[in-house]
Protein: BRCA1-associated RING domain protein 1
Amino acid sequence: MGIENNLAKVQILLTEGANVNTKDHAGWTPLHEACNHGYEKIAKVLLDNGALINTPGSENDTALHDAVRNGRIGCVKLLVSHGACQTLRNAHGLMAKDYAFTDAMKEALTTDVLVTSSTPELQSSAYTDGGPICILATAFSRDLKVELRKLASVINAKIVDDVSPEVTHVVIGVNKDGLCPRTLKYLKAVLAGKWIVTLDWLRTCVEYGYQVSEEPFEVAGSTSNPFSFAPFKGRMNKLKQLPRLFDGCQFYFHGAFNSPVPTKEELMDLVKQGGGHVLSREPRLHTLDELNLTVPYHAVNCDNNISQCGLFIVYAEKTHDLTFHQHPKLCTVSVSCLMESIATFFLCKLYGIIPQL
Structure:
């Protein structure tokens, strides 16, 4: 849905069912474009039709970042009045207010909030659209695998062996409390924002003869992290078109990673699945300026003292040989903390102490 200063055309496109949150190749939404150019009336129509107000685009700039940087005071007032978050940082660690250099723009950022965007609409639209179902199964006994395959064949669902873009549902075995084991496939699915449901969802679909709502069957967490609601958090993160959990993070894997922890290759795969970048050379304090350091998007809820740290050295607890020192740009993180951050979908679990290099 391209944007030009033609309100009537935009309204026609919306009537025809155009997706108001479609991103272009650069990651910009129609709301970004409207606010960039100062098309206030179009921006209001987009917001009234469900535009996600805080979705970041290129370099994690929100529409508010864009409007402030380009001096679009009317759009800034509109966004703030609709509840745009002013504490979100872009990839450079800057909030929208950091681009406000005039008194008029600073005053615009104090506009009263009149409308707040809500997530119920997202939740109600969070079901699959009736298209082809593709299932990844994990943590099942042999007998339950047989049952799953029979149920899947009844609803013409495809079964695959690993998390991929075509997977719509991860069906996982759970205990009597409805909690699943923390398998690598489970962690990948959390990072990818997939539906993670119990086998009862598939059974109910077959019983009723149609695809039922997934929400009552969504897994609440793993046995290691009960009721973390990580599957829900990861799924909502994707629906809101927010960056993945490790966006803005860079990782170096130090030393050997032996059983019972995952292999280095498996850990690197998890980090990449979460939008993180893997370094091939160990970072040193005196060479940090040579790295393209970015700020983790999801560190917004972390303590301000660490929210700008996006460089991590990962080690296995029993084999690490690092000494530690405080530095604002570089953190060490154990494998267990890395896994915890995924299993709770909470980036702040990553932050530990800093190595002396």
Q: What stands out?
A: Residues 123-127, 353-357 have pLDDT under 50 and may be disordered. The chain has three domains: 7-117, 126-239, 250-356.
